[in-house]
Amino acid sequence: MELIADREHASNTVTAVYYPENIDDGKFRSEMKKREIVVASTLGPLKEKGFRVGHMGNVSQNDIISTIAAIEASLKSLGYNFDLGAGLSAAEDKLLSLKSK
Fold first, then answer.
1. What residue spans define the domains of the chain?
2. What is the CATH number of domain 7-99?
3. Binning pLDDT at 50, 70 and 90, where does residue 99 land?
4. Are the C-beta atoms of residues 1 and 17 closer than 8 Å to each other?
């Protein structure tokens, strides 16, 4: 998956991600809601080409892990082919590296 904004233009309060090929915006957001995670569609010329995850306030490591797990489960349920758990593994590695600093 690809982030919409490059690091130079990234926001501290929201992350926007392009959908993989053949993922429907409404179906994806519906799957996420079933998993009790609410994400928003992209706006303007990017409408329905990706989703946005807000991260203002107190965001814990559990919030990060549960959101990534819901993204993976939602994509898998919509037929996207990838190694389930790859995103979770990458996130856990990053979080562990931050703790060791």
1. 7-99
2. 3.90.1150.10
3. confident
4. yes
